[in-house]
Specification:
The complex is a heterodimer of chains A (about 775) and B (about 625). Chain A has about 775 residues and is α+β, with helices and mostly antiparallel strands. Chain A has 12 helices and 37 strands. The chains are: A alpha+beta (about 775), B alpha/beta (about 625).
């Protein structure tokens, strides 16, 4: 007979057995969700804010598994797969869309009275809902904004906290004309012709960009929190002084007022400290938002300049809130003293009163922003500057914060698009959402001196006539009210920049690609801001092989072309409009496309530059890099290998450009070849007694060369000479045109190649 | 979403009327003569011209004329001179605005209040965005507060999005004033800017108004309200062309060449408040009697709070004084019955104490009086705060823009509130008969109250020609040269004086509007006399759709009766039964005047925004 103690023993054995099972099975799983413990908590007392990163491995479960988190037990979560945060889920091998759940545990030791804890997200694509320890914390919509919640009341101290984030990156609803009625503000991440699948197929929403793509952190702080610091520089150029008009808020998270001193320290950030301006303001902080407007004057400020006009001098403004003789919060922002004017009447951009011709490109760094490290951004910026680009149109999206910081530091200007392009639904909810997110964009990026313009919607449905060909039902007033409302919202938010209501289709002359002929770029234009132009080109063979399998490298069947089109190639435009020859081998094909892109860019760019300010104020080649393994408009492919077009652009964008204007591509035997020589100097510098040389070569022979000197004025563009060559023999010719300063240092070089042919092969510009 | 007023966004506000010392002197000269001639006329009316055969008619009309004449005296006093308050540069620190400077150099803190109840989110957004653009040359704290009595989620989200404070409460006590009081309790700024949900403040508002507060006695500064959405109307020639083609156009062109540009359909409700702010209010600056009108004003918190405290203790005293004798009486009765004298006094003391604390508990302190016309009420409280001598300033420059009533119903509700509110104060808490105000201020407030009785005599003026035409009973002895001799100089001089006094502002429109206002005016008077509450509907910011003819029935009846009277008398004259030609002609003149005056408002009932201009 079993005794009572046997029973006890059996029961306890049963428990021990299950405990062992638990230890073996569950504990290792839960340790995957690595737990953060703060060891040196004392340091919180020293700095007013302490940041604890929640980067690393999180638990992940895709799918609409539950409406509430109450259905998840710890065990469930432990069995989820792991994922790195921050990352777009696609880059983590999760090719999904829609809902996915993220979970993370962390521990935080007990905090002193009055401390608050914020949970900060730097970017979640696209909708996030957050729970902490089963308590609903909040909701956020929009892929690019940073957002935060006060979680103090939901935290448990000295114990594990369970953070759950439901991320939803939905697809636009499919169906006829699906992309004409989009509802998510994702710009080129939702729908674009450089996306996987391109813009005009049902596969255009593949490889979704969702996920917690930017860092998540906890921030421990005191009851007063500095927020929304906006510094508006106001230059008094005539008086050699400036004001930094600071607008900021202090959110006092307690019920009683607090007398405080707010200290502002203004000092150089990226150049030697010569002067420091300190300003103190005394005021009682009241519960809630306290908004301060504080003008800080500075004499002889070092101005922020674009790289070709000067140094990108940045200042740092450090704000400290001092109460009871202790610093209870501090925040530093960098900004630059610079002034932007766009004179529409005269088609002139002026930075700090200095006229500047915008030599731009369009840029989408990647479809999945988490792969863009600061180093990779820096590499792109270096490539842009090497190509003599002074402005970047961040095309129909907002990119990662690091990029803007690096541009500020490198003196590279930005034309910032809001992530809206083409058609969207026209309901009140969507419109309100647009207004909200556009305001957020302006407020978040406000202090970056490199951004000089906001452009609010790319080719809106109501103005884009070409949409007739793409969609079954187009409405001439679609999104028109939205466009107007958006403009009226953003305009008062920012007086320090130009606001472009929308980038019109007419500002995108796709000559030689979607319409017309590439030689049409030789005709005078009436567009002041040319926001897109260019042509596609294939990456080199090595990289093309990374995209296309060996059997698809020479596409012939419709199926094969389908795979090419999935990777953005547009055969119709390439063959029917651009009339690019496929050639006989893949290598030919690559060469032909690259040569075509190069000659289009060279002709268009130089032609626009010769029309500087009459009427052209700025141009933006399309596109700088390829944002995924694809074959589209980039002059640099996804692996950052330049195509021929990159070098053509680099040459055409030389700040001091000797430019050869020609009227026809080739000449008939016996025809007079005549050219105009132009000297364009975008730099704010005179070159007196500059040496100009032009020569003509035929194959290896230098046929003739001419020198003369010339005073080249700063910021000028002039036709300096009309040259003619008579009686040229049949053959291939190269006209070389250089300019050097009075010391002989080369400022710019340019070449133009042409053939003298038998009459049948001659091609006239007017064909 | 787009608004009807989007296309007016770029309108620029008019400059304040230019001051001319010569015009002012001329006005004072002509106005004085007018008043003398007017007195002579009134005297003549009473002494010589009464029709003793019809005293039932003659005396009321003579009384009406006398009251109107008193109104004219008050109006003249009001218009007497322009003396703007000197403007000072914006202060750097709070101490510069105080009697006794603080120990530390504290910066100024301003609260901007946007009370809202049911206004559209986008409308409020525009206002808040503009407030966020407020500028100041020195460090300053500007806290914007959205005071939402509608308790709406969307408003809370909007506040959060724009980084402004959201204040709501669990009741709607006191409506807008209650809403603001609630916000005052939760905020601490040194100055308070009062806006309506549709007030679009200009960036320069604080720069141009805070300087006045360098005078520590200045309690508030009111800026003119400017309706930037007033319909501009169409040129006469364009309107005539629509009906009569090119001949019409040509006719219109000729008329406009002669008379200057004539805009048909301009400001159909006569909303333009320039007459009120630029003339009436501005010319009260010298008497320190301009009153606050709500939106577009900035207040010194200390003044509002102090005046409120005083009013609070006063009302406690009043209630205690009212209640205590009764209690004492009742107590002594009880004590007598019990024959315990000693106990009575002890009980009495304790009870008094208890009652007092109960009363203190129950009476609420109301910085902004819970009153339909909380603004003028607060002004009176501050102006009559003896010992502090608070000053008010009407800053002549426009510093904000707002929306005008876009339909007759909204207009009527608003005017009814103004009239009822002012009359309520006049009857129930008249500052003129209390100590506190100086005589200039009393005159100015009397002028305001007096104008709200105008409906009584205006209805008589409107009806007397009709009565005459139907009955041939004249209110005066005869329409003789004696009559013309007395009335014409007065009328002409009065027109002249008004024209000079209000130079730069169209005169007839204001007058016509005042005359047609009689119905609303009388209704408000009737409501107050019956001791009924003037209701507080918030003025809708959206155009109300519909036919508003029912609102202008009284004015329409005046037109109908006048026409009928003219027809009847004309036919009588033709038949020979009506033989007072002078009387007929004189009254025909008045009839035409009255019909034209009434027609503006009657037509406005059918006014619709010009849709073609919107498209």
């Amino acid at each position: 007979m079993r005794t009572l103690s046997d029973h006890y023993r059996a029961i306890s054995r049963f428990f021990i057995y299950w405990f062992m099972v638990w230890v073996i099975a569950v504990v290792p799983a839960s340790s995957i969700a690595d737990t953060h413990k703060i060891s040196q908590f004392e340091s919180v007392e020293m700095a007013p804010r302490q940041v604890i990163s929640l980067s690393g491995s999180w638990q992940f479960k895709p799918g609409e598994v539950s409406d509430t988190i109450n259905d998840f037990s710890e065990n469930d979560i432990a069995r989820w797969t792991s994922i790195n945060v921050p990352a777009n889920w696609y880059l983590e091998g999760k090719d999904i869309s829609g809902v996915a759940w993220y979970a993370k545990t962390f521990t935080i030791p007990h905090l002193n009275e009055g401390k608050r804890v914020s949970l900060k997200f730097s970017g979640v694509d696209y909708i996030a809902e957050i729970w902490l320890n089963g308590r609903y914390i909040g909701f956020h919509e929009g892929y690019f904004q940073a957002f935060e919640f006060d979680i103090t009341n939901a935290l448990v101290f000295d114990k594990e906290n369970q953070l759950i984030v439901k991320v939803n990156s939905p697809l636009e609803k499919m169906g006829e004309d699906w992309s004409l009625h989009k509802r998510y503000i994702k710009g080129i991440f939702g729908h674009h012709d450089t996306r996987p699948g391109g813009a005009w197929s049902d596969r255009g929403q593949e490889k979704n960009t969702g996920g917690i793509w930017a860092p998540v952190m906890l921030e421990i702080h005191e009851v007063a929190l500095i927020k929304n610091v906006k510094v508006s520089p106001q230059l008094h150029l005539d008086k050699h002084s400036a004001d930094a008009n600071v607008q900021m808020q202090i959110d006092l998270q307690q019920a009683v007022a607090l007398p405080a001193t707010i200290q502002f320290t203004l000092k150089p950030y990226n150049f030697p400290v010569t002067q420091t301006v300190v300003k103190e303001v005394k005021q009682n902080l009241t519960p809630g938002f306290n908004t301060f407007h504080v003008p800080i004057s500075i004499n002889d400020p070092a101005l922020w300049w674009p790289w070709e006009q000067g140094k990108p001098n940045l200042y740092q403004l450090e704000i400290k809130v001092i109460a009871n003789k202790q610093v209870i919060d501090s925040k530093a922002v960098t900004f630059g003293f610079r002034d932007v004017q766009y004179d529409k009447m005269n088609n002139e951009w002026k930075i700090n009163g200095q006229r500047l011709f915008l030599r731009g490109t369009n840029y989408i760094a990647s479809q999945w922003l988490s792969e863009m490290t600061p180093e990779r951004f820096a590499q792109d910026i270096a490539l842009m500057k090497a190509a003599n680009i002074n402005i970047v149109r961040v095309h129909a999206h907002v990119t990662a914060e690091d990029y803007y910081r690096l541009c500020d530091e490198s003196g590279l200007l930005n034309w910032q698009d809001f992530p809206l392009q083409w058609g969207y639904v026209d309901d009140q909810d969507f419109h309100n959402n647009v207004i909200r997110q556009a305001s957020a964009m302006v407020n978040e990026l406000f202090n970056h001196p490199s951004i000089i313009a906001w452009s609010l919607i790319n080719e809106p449905a109501w103005e884009a006539d070409w949409m007739k060909e793409k969609y079954h039902h187009v409405n001439k007033s679609q999104n028109k009210a939205l466009t107007e409302r958006l403009y009226k919202t953003v305009l008062p938010l920012d007086k320090t920049r130009y606001v472009h209501p929308f980038s019109a289709s007419s500002e995108h002359p796709w000559l030689g690609w979607y319409s017309g002929h590439w030689l049409d770029y030789n005709q005078p234009t009436n567009i002041s801001l040319v926001a897109e132009y260019g042509a596609q080109a294939l990456p080199n063979l090595v990289n093309l092989r990374k995209i296309m399998s060996e059997k698809d490298l020479w596409p012939e069947t419709e199926e094969q072309w389908g795979r090419w089109m999935y990777h953005n190639f547009q055969p119709k435009a390439a063959f029917n409009i651009a009339k690019i020859a496929k050639g006989n081998t893949p290598a030919d094909f690559v060469k032909n496309t690259q040569e075509y892109q190069a000659k289009v860019l060279k002709l268009a760019t130089e032609s626009y530059r010769r029309q500087r300010y009459h009427p052209v104020s700025g141009i933006f080649q399309f596109m700088f890099v390829e944002d995924w393994p694809s074959m589209n408009w980039g002059v640099i492919d996804y692996w950052r290998t330049p195509k021929l077009g990159y070098y053509a652009l680099q040459q055409a964008y030389q700040p001091v450009l000797p430019s050869i204007a020609w009227k026809q591509e080739n000449y008939q035997h016996g025809e007079v070849a005549d050219f105009d020589l132009w000297v364009i100097n975008d730099l704010p510098k005179d070159y007196p007694n500059a040496k100009v040389t032009y020569s003509l070569r035929n194959s290896k022979t230098l046929l003739e060369t001419h020198d003369f000197t010339l005073d080249v004025a700063a910021d000028s563009g002039l036709k300096i000479k009309d040259i003619r060559f008579n009686n040229l023999n049949l053959g291939h010719y190269e006209l070389i045109f250089t300019i050097a300063d009075s010391e002989g240092k080369r400022l710019g070089v340019n070449t133009h190649e042409f053939d003298v042919l038998n009459s049948e092969k001659t091609k006239h510009i007017d064909q | 979403m787009s608004f009807y007023f989007d296309r007016f966004e770029n309108r620029k506000p008019p400059e304040p009327l230019a001051y001319s010392v010569w015009r002012e002197l001329l006005y004072q000269f002509v106005a004085t003569i007018t008043l003398v001639v007017g007195a002579w006329y009134i005297w003549w009316r009473w002494a010589y011209s009464l029709n003793y055969d019809a005293l039932w008619f003659a005396i009321p009309l003579a009384l009406a004329e006398t009251f109107a004449y008193i109104g004219l005296i008050l109006f003249t006093v009001n218009l007497w001179k322009t003396k703007d308050y000197p403007q000072s540069p914006p202060p750097t620190h709070l101490s510069e605005t105080l009697d006794a400077p603080l120990d530390e150099k504290r910066i100024i803190s301003v609260d901007v209040f946007y009370p809202t109840y049911n206004e559209d989110e986008d409308l409020v957004r525009l206002s808040l965005l503009d407030a966020k653009c407020l500028r100041y040359p020195h460090p300053i704290q500007i806290n914007i507060h959205l005071l939402d009595d509608g308790k709406r989620k969307a408003m809370q989200a909007l506040a959060e999005e724009l980084g402004v404070n959201y204040i709501t409460r669990d009741n709607n006590l006191g409506f807008k004033a209650g809403n603001m009081r609630n916000a005052m309790e939760q905020t601490h700024g040194d100055f308070i800017v009062i806006c309506d949900a549709d007030t679009r403040i200009f960036p320069t508002f604080l720069i141009n108004t805070l300087g006045y507060f360098r005078d520590p006695k200045v309690a508030w500064v009111q800026t003119p309200q400017w309706f930037f959405d007033l319909p501009e109307g169409k040129n006469l020639r364009v309107v005539l062309k629509k009906y009569f083609w090119y001949p019409g156009f040509a006719l219109g062109w000729v008329i406009e060449k002669i008379c200057g540009s004539i805009m048909i359909g301009k400001d159909p409700f006569v909303n333009d408040p320039q007459m009120f702010y630029d003339i009436i209010q501005r010319r009260r600056n010298w008497a320190n009697a301009s009153f606050c009108c709500g939106a577009g004003s900035i207040h010194r918190r200390e003044a509002i709070m102090e005046a409120a405290l005083k009013a609070y203790s006063r009302s406690i005293d009043t209630v205690i004084d009212d209640v205590m004798p009764d209690i004492s009486k009742a107590l002594s009765k009880v004590a007598k019955q019990l024959e315990k004298k000693e106990a009575e006094s002890r009980l009495n003391d304790r009870l008094k104490e208890a009652v007092t604390s109960q009363i203190i508990h129950e009476i609420e302190m109301t910085p902004y009086k819970f009153h339909v016309s909380e603004d003028i009420y607060t002004s009176i409280v501050l102006h009559s705060d003896h010992g502090r001598e608070w000053k008010s300033v009407l800053h002549p420059g426009i510093e904000c823009k707002m929306l005008s009533p876009q339909d007759l119903q909204t207009w009527t509700v608003q005017r009814f509130k103004y009239a009822g509110g002012s009359l309520d104060i006049c009857f129930n808490d008249n500052p003129v008969f209390r100590p506190g105000l100086n005589w200039q201020q009393k005159l100015m407030y009397t002028s305001t109250f007096w104008s709200y009785f105008g409906g009584i005599w205006n209805i008589l003026f409107l009806l007397s020609p009709v009565i005459f035409l139907f009955t041939q009973v004249a209110p005066i002895a005869s329409y003789s040269s004696e009559f013309y001799k007395h009335i014409f100089p007065f009328l002409i001089l009065n027109e002249l004086a008004t024209m000079i006094g209000t130079w730069g502002i169209a005169g007839f429109k204001s007058k016509a509007s005042y005359l047609s206002f009689f119905a609303v005016n009388l209704q408000a008077l009737w409501t107050i006399l019956r001791n009924k509450q003037i209701k507080f509907p918030t003025t809708p910011k959206e155009r109300q759709e519909g036919n508003f003819f029912h609102l202008v029935v009284p004015q329409f009846m005046v037109i109908v009766l006048t026409f009928a009277g003219l027809g009847y008398a004309g036919y009588g004259y033709y038949q020979g039964s009506f033989n007072n030609l002078n009387g007929l002609l004189t009254n025909t003149f008045w009839c035409i005047n009255n019909i034209v005056a009434m027609s503006g408002l009657v037509l406005s009932a059918f006014w619709k925004p010009d849709e073609t201009a919107i498209a």
